[in-house]
Design brief:
One of its GO terms (biological process) is glutamyl-tRNA aminoacylation. This protein is mainly α. Helices cover 46% and strands 11% of the residues. It binds glutamic acid.
Length: 450
């Protein structure tokens, strides 16, 4: 590890498998772990769960790092399971010696058959531990037949498994009602369960926050921690994320961080929404990570599925864009764009990148609509009345009102259309100052002649 923290340092980890991009579900888990660590003044680690060499891809490892950095959740350390196999081997050997793991020889078909028989009898399909009952001679015979064993972890049936879950409250599992989990395949490759527990011990993880799909894994892993001579970390299992329609849709599963970036969502909009979904706290356009850290509270999490709605993300995004300082856009806006322009245009944006098209309404060229003969003469009058001072818009509309008797929409809309080519948009008072006297007069004159 990058540093040697005191054993009591609050430490969380985000442990994705690099088999795809980050998506809303695991961004949310990463965020919970990040916020919990920062709030406690502790460490947030990234653990790449890449023991599955076939499905893990380097490009996804890089994408995960980039996405976390983009979201503002740069970890304090990174570990890769594929580089820690030696550690797993040693822990495994200890468990073999202690009789906590055992060889099993059933094929997938045999196991399936056992399952069906039990289910047919109305019984839960719990593995019968037949392999544990084999004698040495029977085992040798199997191996002489060329059957390579896989390995199971032997659950302790005597003591109930209990923990106080920070979201779900007190949890109790009966190990006798569970199958001894397969932890290692016949080809010696690892399944997720044991390496994760070994790592959580070795990395001194103090709190594991993850989705409720891991609740039964936690029951097993608690026994693994104990078998390895360690006390388990604290656990919190959050209710799953579902789409607006109430189930985890394909679309939600595929809503990756890359899609969010392409669609120009603000990272803080994603964070602000995901930090509050599924909690009793309101979703608010919180633009500062410090505020999310400060207000993170596991006791506010509910048991009902958290609903993700992209329309809500769009709304929060707009509200966050409306708070962004000029510096947030100064890097990509065209030359000449000023803080005053940002101030005028900002309230009109849903996405930051839209600033470019709005700036074009200032700099031109613009496309004006066709005006009626009446509006044309109105606009000719506007061109002749235009006078520049610190608020030319107020002056112009005041004068036009007096002269023509027009008011409301009839007074304002032709002017906005002639000056910007649009029916709606930023405050005309601010916009007119940006367009400038000469250009504004030219636009009004052009509209009056069209
Ligand atoms: N790699 C596992 C997953 O993505 C990690 C689960 C855990 O947090 O322990 O589901």
């Amino acid at each position: 590890m990058s540093a040697n923290p005191a054993p009591s340092t609050p430490t969380t980890r985000f442990a994705p498998s690099p088999t795809g991009r980050l998506h809303v579900g695991n961004i949310r888990t990463a965020l919970h772990n990040f916020l919990a660590a920062r709030q406690a003044g502790g460490r947030f680690l990234l653990r790449i769960d890449d023991t599955d060499a076939e499905r893990s891809r380097e490009e996804y490892v890089e994408a995960i790092r980039e996405d976390l950095a983009w979201l503002g959740m740069t970890p304090d350390g990174e570990e890769r399971q594929s580089e820690r196999l030696e550690l797993y081997e040693r822990a495994f050997e200890r468990l073999v010696e202690d009789g906590r793991v055992y060889r099993a020889y059933e094929t997938a078909q045999e196991l399936e058959l056992k399952r069906k028989i039990l289910l047919g009898r109305g019984k839960p399909p719990i593995y019968d531990r037949a392999a544990l009952a084999l004698t040495d001679a029977e085992r040798s015979e199997k191996e002489a037949q060329g059957i390579v064993p896989h390995w199971r972890f032997k659950l302790d049936h005597e003591s109930p498994i209990i923990w106080d879950d920070a979201v779900r409250g007190p949890q109790k599992f009966d190990a006798a009602q569970m199958s001894d989990p397969v932890i290692r395949r016949a080809d010696n490759s690892w399944l997720y369960m044991l390496p994760s527990a070994i790592d959580d011990i070795d990395m001194a993880i103090t709190q594991v926050l993850r989705g409720e799909d891991h609740v039964s894994n936690t029951a097993v892993q608690i026994q693994m921690f104990e078998a390895l001579g360690a006390s388990p970390p604290a656990f919190a299992h959050t209710a799953l994320l579902v789409g607006r329609e109430g189930k985890l849709s394909k679309r939600l599963g595929s809503l990756g961080c890359d899609a969010f970036r392409e669609q120009d969502y603000e990272p803080m909009a994603i964070n602000a929404l995901l930090a509050r979904l599924g909690t009793s706290k309101p979703v608010e356009p919180i633009a500062s990570m410090a505020e999310l850290i400060e207000t993170f509270d596991l006791s506010s999490f509910g048991r009902a599925p958290a609903k993700f709605d992209e329309a809500e993300l769009a709304r929060i995004n707009a509200q966050i864009v409306h708070q962004l300082p000029f510096e947030a856009v100064s890097g990509f806006v065209p030359e000449g764009f000023t803080p005053e322009a940002w101030h005028a245009i900002r309230p009109n944006l849903e996405k930051k990148s839209e600033v470019v098209e709005w700036w074009q309404t200032v700099t031109g060229p613009i496309t004006q609509p066709e005006f009626s003969a009446e509006d044309r003469s109105y606009l000719a009058e506007a061109a002749s009345l235009l006078e520049w001072d610190e608020n030319p818009w107020q002056k112009l509309t005041g004068a036009l009102k007096d002269r023509t008797g027009r008011k409301g929409r009839a007074l304002f809309l032709p002017l906005r259309q002639a000056l910007t080519g649009r029916d709606h948009g930023p405050d005309m008072g601010e916009l007119l100052l940006l367009i400038g006297e000469e250009e504004a007069r030219a636009r009004l004159e052009a509209a009056s002649k069209a």
